[in-house]
Amino acid sequence: MAATNASSQPAPLDQPVSTDELAAKAVNKRYEGLVMVRTKAVKGKGAWYWAYLEPVLVHNSDTGLPKAVKLRCSLCDAVFSASNPSRTASEHLKRGTCPNFSSLPKPISSLSPTGASLLPPPPGAASTPQPNDRKRSRGSSSAGAPSGTSYQVPPLTIIDPSRFDYPASAATTAAAGSPQQQHLVLSGGKDDLGALAMFEDSVKKLKSPKTSPGPALSKAQIDSALDSLADWVYESCGSVSFTSLEHPKFRAFLGQLGLPAISRREFAGARLDVKFQEARADAEARIRDAMFFQISSDGWKYRGNYAEDNHLVNLTVNLPNGSSLYRRAVFVSGSVPSNYAEEVLWETITGITGSNIRQCVGIVSDKFKAKALRTLESQNHWMVNLSCQFQGFTSLLKDFGKELPLFRTVTESCLKVASFVNNDSRVRKSFHKYQMQEHGHYGLIRVPAHIHQEANLQPVFTMFEDVFNSSRALQLVLLDESYKIVSMEDAVASEVAEMVQDTVFWNELEAAHSLVKLVKDMAQEIESERPLIGQCLPLWDELRLKIKDWCSKYHVPEGPVEKVVERRFRKNYHPAWAAAFILDPLYLIRDTSGKYLPPFKCLTPDQEKDVDKLITRLVSREEAHIALMELMKWRTEGLDPVYARAVQMKERDPITGKMRLANPQSSRLVWETYLTEFKSLGRVAVRLIFLHATSCGFSCNWSFLRWVSASARGSSRVGLDRAQKLVFLAAQAKLERRDFSSEDEKDAELFSPGNGEDDVLNEVLVDAPSAI
């Protein structure tokens, strides 16, 4: 040990370290590592053979430095290389090379599942290793017993199957003919081996009660772990049920981590209350710190599958700094009258502001009931109440489906094709065959339940997509011999064949499918990007340009399509769109003189008047003329070019690759800090610029909505209170992460094709005889 200690001392800085010393350090490190492994194994946390193998250092006789690490067998004092302890144990101990090892009784847990000999092998004979000896030995606590000790347990005898009057198994019969291969046969079969191992563990615990447990977690570590677990449960909002916290496998998992069992009542009671109070206090403090805010109201237009079930209306607070805070959830069912929505919105505003109701400068809401928004706006002149742009674009799709002749024609044609293919068994079988050939999977063409007066046109668009994607398979069906036979018997088959072979049908279907995709893509981008109201006019201009190109590509007259778009635009339009577009420095245009001026030339004459009217409404009567004078100055002078370029500076998002604003809050901040000479106009500008144009926010998953419905139907005050708190915690966490999708959508995306992964599920279904 003196040599070991000397070798571990650092060499003086002025003396180079020799090669022998470096080698000695490496050997010493190897020795210390093996000693540590053996120490843990003796405590029952390592391989069984360390009870019999002991690391030793071999020193150089000339220098006294350690030169090698060996393993010494504590039973026979034989010495081996330490390069592979597992192999040494297998060759020296298991195969009978050690004269003293074979005389020790084998622990029951060393038996393999197929049975193992309990009798020691004859002297001089090598024991036959069993397949699972090594695996079971590692898990046995007997491996950690000190060398030289043995259990004082009477050896078990081989059970004679004839005692129980049932024929011996083939394995037992074969074993009986070999005196060295006797197998353990238990009355319960192989399943008894697990019970036998549990029995042996109980015997070991009684014989060695002072086994040293692993290091326990501190109270602070346990509390922190349970806090994180609670956050995950609450933020999952119904995906993780409280009952699953008491599942035996989950409790076993917690035990493996050193955590105590938890109660679902605690997680749904006291702990939930504490978490909710902390989150609510933080949100209220942030709202009080802001000068003004906007209320976002989403859920009045229920988009679920069960319109009669209870669903959530989510009320969120948008702050000027770009953050959003969840406020409350309202449980409603079916259709809601406009005056009820007005009451809920006003109660929310007064509940936040108290007597300072001017702190709320506007509302943005889905579908709703424009009447409620207009009423609140007319009663409170400082408010700007808007309808959701995402809802506006999805409503435009319904307008197209109901008003464009193209959609009626394509709907009738697709319905005829789909119904015939789905209902005729011979054609359906042929269709599935070619679907499998072309796409690797097959299924029916999805047909809407009700075509006429369909409130939700999404099923119609789904049928378009199915027929469009099955074009190649449908063409091949017509060439199949089975279809020729059907055509001779059914007149509809000939009509469908003529339709499928007509290029006009496919051109019209492609046009309708393309227009639906165009609008849906823009709507999805609006939902994810959540634009501010200054972006509304550019968004509709972008839509008009894309539709104009679509009309040109598919030779569709522009007039009827433009008429539908303009009607929907007028329903959604608000004068604040034009005012925010003019006042936001983000949209300033550089003129020939180098000035950055507001884009008045992009407005229509009516929209210019709207800007004047809105600004005068948002200020007091006394300062209305001052605000208009400042607007004229803004129109002619604009913003300093350096500040304008700083506001409009963009950088590429490293995740999405899109160009995004480098300083998203700079449009508002430049009015508050630099354009201070615009006192009246500046107050209007900072309140308009931050307003959101969409109400898209928190999305509940389906399982949570079912739970909410059950609580509401049962009229349980405690249940509804818990639901409110859970929604608040889950929604607030999602808003902090800017995650506006639901778990159901993410799971659907995971299992949808085209996600870049091998479609193993489809391969399994395809290989199955009755896949669908």
TrEMBL record:
Region labeled Disordered — which residues? 104-154
Organism the protein comes from: Punica granatum (Pomegranate)
| InterPro entries from the UniProt entry | DUF7963, RNaseH-like_sf
Locate the DUF7963 domain: which residues? Answer: 18-102
User: What are the Low complexity biased-composition ranges?
Assistant: 104-118, 139-150
| PANTHER family per record | F16P17.2 PROTEIN, OSJNBA0013A04.12 PROTEIN
Q: Which named protein is this?
A: Uncharacterized protein LOC116204581 isoform X1
Any Pfam family from its record, for instance, is DUF7963
